């Protein structure tokens, strides 16, 4: 059984028994980049007006309570988590609890001290978001031209230390021209890479989103092109065959049933705690917040599970022939329609464009 199989097994068992096996600690909403599509990014002044970040001791105590409740996997994210001067204290204390920790970072703030920390106390992996392949792209999308070279330096430091690195990337009008260069960089350095299949609106950002988003059709086409660049010939053929079978699925002719309960991990085996102590089923569902700072972990988790049990999924999606290749979920529907069971037409357009582009001859 592979590591992925084991993780999937643990997640399914945890969700069935409402055990919070997977958690996310959003250590800060602050970031040294100002990405125009970010769902949460705030300046220090903006964050201070809304509240105070959880202290290191509060995060460590929440970690203990979550481990007691069953947490095994933990993601540390932001904002940019390395902005916190007490990151090392938080990280070391949590990983010594036996947790499998992943860190999300833009890698621009990587230091020898952080590398030493990761070398001694190895994370499961470090996810680095790479936004482009030039100073110009980083300047236009992230507001920080120097970010490109610093990100490459951070990735190199992690690789040289033997830390497992994964690359994440997101495509907008400001960086879509770098798609092939980003993929080439990942291949050249033998780093796994994934593309964000859906860019959430700025659900918790204090700034109105700029018009940097690709249209649903453009997003679907670029996602297909990304997969065709990154999949092996064998996986590519398997994916094409799978999509063809989906499109020939006769169940798509059935009448849509009543809306059913969402089956994702959010609020069943997974949770997200924000920088100021709010627990969500996932980071994109602030509508279901619980005050973990006031309640403590277990009561907040119990209430989060109850809230998640009210989340429905779109009836039409359940019988759609595209459902198995569509990144739809309760959070996506909520962000686009205001309801967890709303029909997100933009996502329909994106997925149809993806399937069409993926099946086109090379």
Walk me through this protein's architecture:
- This protein is of the alpha/beta class and 362 residues long.
- The strands form two sheets. Strands 6-5-4-3-2-1-8-9-10 form a nine-stranded mixed beta sheet.
- The longest helix has 15 residues, at 216-230.
- The two termini are 35 Å apart.
- Helices cover 44% and strands 12% of the residues.
- α3 (56-69) runs parallel beside α4 (87-95), α8 packs parallel to α9 (216-230) and α9 runs parallel beside α15 (345-359).
- β8 (270-273) and β9 (278-280) form a beta hairpin.
- The protein contains 15 helices and eleven strands.
- The protein has two domains: 3-213 and 264-310, TIM Barrel (Alpha-Beta Barrel); 215-262 and 311-362, no CATH class.
- The chain has helices at residues 3-16, 44-50, 56-69, 87-95, 112-120, 135-142, 147-160, 179-188, 216-230, 233-247, 292-295, 297-308, 315-318, 330-337, 345-359, and strands at 22-26, 73-77, 100-105, 125-129, 165-169, 193-195, 260-261, 270-273, 278-280, 290-291, 312-313.
- The mean pLDDT is 91.
Write the layout of secondary structure elements.
Blueprint (H helix, E strand, L loop, with lengths): L2 H14 L5 E5 L17 H7 L5 H14 L3 E5 L9 H9 L4 E6 L6 H9 L4 E5 L5 H8 L4 H14 L4 E5 L9 H10 L4 E3 L20 H15 L2 H15 L12 E2 L8 E4 L4 E3 L9 E2 H4 L1 H12 L3 E2 L1 H4 L11 H8 L7 H15 L3
Parallel strand pairs: 1-2, 1-8, 2-3, 3-4, 4-5, 5-6
Antiparallel strand pairs: 7-11, 8-9, 9-10
- Mean pLDDT, nearest integer? 91
Shape: globular
Major beta sheet summary: 9 strands, mixed
- Beta-strand portion reads 5-15%
Task: Kindly report the name of the CATH homologous superfamily of the largest domain.
Answer: Aldolase class I
What count of domains describes the coordinates? 2
Model regions low in confidence, pLDDT < 50 over at least 5 residues: none
| The CATH C-level class name of the largest domain | Alpha Beta
Give the second-level CATH assignment, the architecture of the largest domain. Answer: Alpha-Beta Barrel
C-alpha Rg, in Å?
A: 20 Å
Q: What is the number of beta strands?
A: 11
CATH topology value of the largest domain: TIM Barrel
- Span between N and C termini? 35 Å
| Secondary-structure content class | alpha/beta
* Helix proportion range: 40-55%
If strands are numbered along the chain, what order do they take across the biggest sheet? 6-5-4-3-2-1-8-9-10
